Records
---
Amino acid sequence: MLKFLGFTDDFFFAFDSIGGIETGSITELFGEFRTGKTQLCHQLCVTCQLPVDRGGGEGKALYIDTEGTFRPQRLQAIAERYGLDGDSVLDNVAFARAYNSEHQMQLLVQASAMMAESRFALVIVDSATALFRTDYSGRGELAARQQELAKYVAWTEGLSAGEAC
């Protein structure tokens, strides 16, 4: 479990009170625009690097950004709150920007290869569905979008189970 020990924000305290974010599984965050989903992802990129006794996962983070919301300076600010060196934290975050759903799927395959070589405690896809909605718009493409999204989810599940994509 990844936790937010020592963090005073009620939002993160609520996650700790239910046990944190389970590792080795898929956790979907959803909600209205500007409700803190990306902030939570940034927070997790830092806390996953903490030792287990501090609520972390002792590993790296992999961040696939589909909407251009990743902010390295945010990670550095969060790292300082935990007494960590911001540059070292950034060195332990593999970042990629996906530009379409096909590219997003390719990045997931690359993530699998990276995870075979190094210890990653966390993989974030922010947002998993946005590019599929953009690439497959309209009722005529609904079936194709659902099929591709189902394939993506299956690959993601395999990745969380430690299987190669």
---
Amino acid sequence: MPPRHHPRPLRRAVAAALVIVAVNLVLWAGHTCWVDVQLTSLEPLVAQIDSLESALAEDDAWLQRNGRIAQEYSEHQQLAERLSLRNRRARAHDALVDAHDARIDRLDRRFYLAPPRRTPLPRRRYWGRGDPR
């Protein structure tokens, strides 16, 4: 047995089409009114968003510039640390050399450059624990 159709299918289809058109008209009219209302109320927000976007672009440029500056600063810090380590080593070496030179100067003054003494050096002080000769 074939399926039963509506008694007047064309009338039903036309009514459904009219209902759809009416609903769409109502929705379109409400949407345009709502969009107009929303656009008028959103204009300050749009201006604020534009200003925020421009500020964000400036911040991005600032961050890129300062990112390069920070990278150069870290490279300079690493170089400064290496140089300070090198300078500390050089200063320690200079101090060691100066101490050695001072010791040699003292020994020179004591043994070679000093005028001859009238009294001999005390044995204990000169030889430590007595004269090994």
---
Amino acid sequence: MAGEFDALFKATYGTADFQLVDYTASESAEMKDGLGRIGTTVSVKGEGYIQGTDAADFGLKLAAVCAAFRLSGLPLLISGLTGVLEYSVLPAQSLEGGPHVKSFELLPAGEEAPLVKRLQFEIATSLNQGDGEGGGDEQSSFSVSVATRASNLKAVTYRGEGRGTNAAAVFRTATQPRIRALYPANLWPLTTEEVKNVAEDRVEWTLTFTELATPLPAAPAGAEIFDGDLVRATELDEHYGKVQTLSIDFAFSGDPIAIKDLVRPAGTILRERWDYNTHQDRRVKASFSMLSSTEGDDLLEWDNTFTTTKEGADRPVFEYFGTLPRFGLKAPVYRAVQRGRALTVLRYLKAPEPILDAKLLAKPPVVVCRPVDRVRRETTWEYEFVSEASLDVTAERLGKLRRPVNANLQPGYF
């Protein structure tokens, strides 16, 4: 029951405020022979509740509502979920001291929360809106209901019917635009259903507004976005790569390419796809995959290793004619190899410096840069060292093998 008692419609009768869960309004022409339409009968039925912040506040609100509904001739104002006034019955437009309270009832307690009291009411009046020229036989009514979805977003449904000359045209040119104006189009997409007869003097209609979590983007000039969704997905690999994909699916009018370009992200795009259909439905779909690293820079993969070997002392044999063989002792040799690989976005990473003294290099460094594809760039490096003395491989030197921090902010790209 808690979800039902969210703030939905706000109603004010006289000076008493309360919340409406749903309501029904009907209007029918009052006809008189020889004069035609002489007025309009209006009826409003609703069910709602009052809710207090504490016992004292609850008591004041309950007393105010009960006192107001004992009287006729007070204005009824109904505001929608967006805070805009959407329906009213005013004494200045009413005949015979209306609006009149036909019924008012406090409903028995159910499962509602404390300090909540449910109520229902009916108000009716006659409006002096006749033309006196024999026409204007229209009748119309509509009801409003609100559903709260699992995401706590609302869906507001108006159901109505109209009868009389040009009833279908009145719905399309007057009723629908009036209700559409109550809900911002970029936050409340509209679905319309209309059933009419051949003569178009009878129509049944349904308008459903579905609340969005965030507004639809403003369309470029000459285009419009009616409905749709935007999805963001992130994929992380076992290295440092991160692919973020932005996907759209919009119902539209105008230029689909302009709408696609409107949401095209500014980052480095690895893959891009779009398609649109214009026959059974007008929708544009697009996806953009952007490449970066999990560290927030352009270094996708990093590998930098260091290995050492010792060529042990051997005993070569020296033989001289007429003497016994003699054994010599060759000094040990220490060798090391530092090799690595970096995969980056659009730019090459300058190979890191050797972690040992450059004087120990056995041969010139080997650095290779090559493009992997349209976006990714690869740099590989290899350094070979040789020394007759033990290599001084300290923890500080090995620390230089680590992945650079904020690599795209460091000098060395070219």
---
Amino acid sequence: GNEQKIFIGKHQCKNIKETLINNLSCRLPSITPGIYNIIIKIDNQIINTEQNLKVTPNPIVQDIDPTISFASGGRLITVRGMYFESIQTITVKFSYKKWNAKLKINSHNILTTEDGSMSSFNFRTPGLPSPSADFPSTPIDVNFSLDFDDSIISLSNLIQFRYILDVLLNISSIPPTLPYTGEELKLQVENLTEAASMPDIQLFIGCSECKLKTFTSKGITCQPPAKLLPNTAIILNNQQQQDDCTLFNSSIGPIRFRIGYREYLIGYLSYNRLLSSKYSIVTIISLIFASCFITIAVLILGLYLFYKFRNIQSQKKTLTIKKNIEQSEKQFWSTDTSASTGPY
């Protein structure tokens, strides 16, 4: 048609555009919450779509947690509120003087309770630029605002979004190599709980995640995987690269600590001693029993040979004595004479 109009109830949509072939889009006017039918008018023909549109109240932000991030960014922030399900796009904006950073959040990433009373979405904080004459070093408070479609909700007067120093890791200049024992790994980190929470942290052994167990201001503990994943070739930018699950295809896996957008190589975990550590007790017991059996067998064999040799010697001695007696008796009863015959 030459002219298209879209009505939400009795309210006419604004800025009608043909985005694709046979597709129209428009902006809703300000409407009180309720359920409205949708009517399309093309030239003089009225089309009732027999579909309803639910109009909710404007989004309400009830809670933002946390409101502190480390300077490198990447901290997980959760925004909770009401009536987020009617939002199409959300723009999160951080700004300080001439610096600003924007994050786009799709409506598919919005979580809503079954009854629709509460909604929430997550995002990760952007990193700050390096300190300079125009940008101070941390700690620093930045402006923060949310843009729900065309409605901007400024939160600068409600909260202060603060950036602080990155967490400090006690990393050796030469990453140590630790033996895998099946026990938990402990990592010392300073000011951890001030700048991060558990969802901000990941610990990897090779390509497998080390499951976090405890999280305190002094550090974390995690349970390493029972075995390493082998290196796998991945395609990146049409080039085949090696995924470093192990160190040079060995039984040693790199330990990587990831917090926010940053990743640190803090050491290596060696699975070379896995078999010896896992079966050391069994092996020792087996060796003890084997040595005992061998010792007993040697003793038995020795005793057997000793008694056998003794019996042989005894038999030889008896035969010798018997032979000597027989020879003596033979000489005593002999009829041979050495006298020679001669004339009388």
